[in-house]
């Protein structure tokens, strides 16, 4: 729902708008933090950097994006946003697909012990 937000160990996200087949979020990434390396089964993502410098990893390829630049992530591609600077990073994320729920995440690597492989290894 628009207005939903969550604080995570790496920063926070805030839903700006949501409708059939899409969701728009503002993602704030703390300095020297990064999100999980993850995939989605039901959605693609389009990231636009608002301020800061994003290090974007998509299927193992690293791209640096600054304010006004964008990066696309296809359905099923492994991806991660990193803030490798001492400054804040803000990104607008547009999700497109038949399902945009928060449970459409498969974590491959995670700095906070939330990856599926890590859960299996410690179970």
TrEMBL record:
GO molecular function (one): mannose-1-phosphate guanylyltransferase (GTP) activity
Transmembrane segments annotated in the record for this chain: none
Xref: CDD domains: cupin_PMI_typeII_C
Keywords in alphabetical order: Isomerase
Pfam family, one: MannoseP_isomer
UniProt key word Lyase: no
Start and end residues of each Mannose-6-phosphate isomerase type II C-terminal domain: 7-110
GO biological process: GDP-mannose biosynthetic process; polysaccharide metabolic process
UniProt key word Isomerase: yes
PANTHER family, per the entry: MANNOSE-1-PHOSPHATE GUANYLYLTRANSFERASE
Protein name: Mannose-6-phosphate isomerase
């Amino acid at each position: 729902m628009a207005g939903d937000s969550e604080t995570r160990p790496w920063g926070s996200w805030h839903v700006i708008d949501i409708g059939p087949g899409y969701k728009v979020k503002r993602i704030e990434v703390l300095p020297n933090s990064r999100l999980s390396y993850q995939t989605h089964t039901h959605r693609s993502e389009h990231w636009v950097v608002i301020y800061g410098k994003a290090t974007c990893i998509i299927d193992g390829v690293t791209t640096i994006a600054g304010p006004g630049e964008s990066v696309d992530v296809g359905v099923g591609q492994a991806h991660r946003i990193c803030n490798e600077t001492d400054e804040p990073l803000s990104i607008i994320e547009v999700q497109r697909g038949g399902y945009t729920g928060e449970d459409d995440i498969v974590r491959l690597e995670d700095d906070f012990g939330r990856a599926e492989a890590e859960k299996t290894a410690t179970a």
